[in-house]
Amino acid sequence: MAILAYCDLSGISLPMYALFTLGVALWLSYGLAMASAPIVAANAVTLVLRLKILEMRR
Predict the structure, then answer these.
(1) pTM score, two decimals?
(2) 1.20.1280.290, 1.10.730.10, 3.65.10.10, 3.60.10.10: which CATH number matches 2-57?
(3) Can you tell me the distance from the alpha carbon of 12 to that of 41, in angstroms, rounded to the nearest whole number?
(4) Using one digit for the tens of pLDDT, what is the confidence trace for 11-48?
(5) Burial, 39: exposed, middle or buried (Cβ in 10 Å; 0-12, 13-18, 19+)?
(6) Contact 46, 24 (CB under 8 A)
(7) Dihedral, CA atoms, 15, 19, 21, 27, nearest 10 degrees?
(8) Domain spans of the chain, in order of start
(9) Alpha-carbon distance 22 to 36, whole Å?
(10) What is the largest CA-CA distance in the chain?
(11) Which of 1, 7, 13, 40 has the most CB atoms lying inside 10 A of its own CB?
């Protein structure tokens, strides 16, 4: 949460963060395909927050 509070992204490797975000998106796709509400909910929230941070990084 410090990233969102202080907008300090100096310690984040952009390629690694983007790769992890892609993994979360793939898990979200899997959850949708399996119609698993817990997987969809957890990964949707995570994806929204990670995309917000990626947007701040640019």
Answers:
(1) 0.78
(2) 1.20.1280.290
(3) 25
(4) 778 888 889 999 999 999 999 999 999 999 999 999 99
(5) middle
(6) yes
(7) 180
(8) 2-57
(9) 19
(10) 37
(11) 40
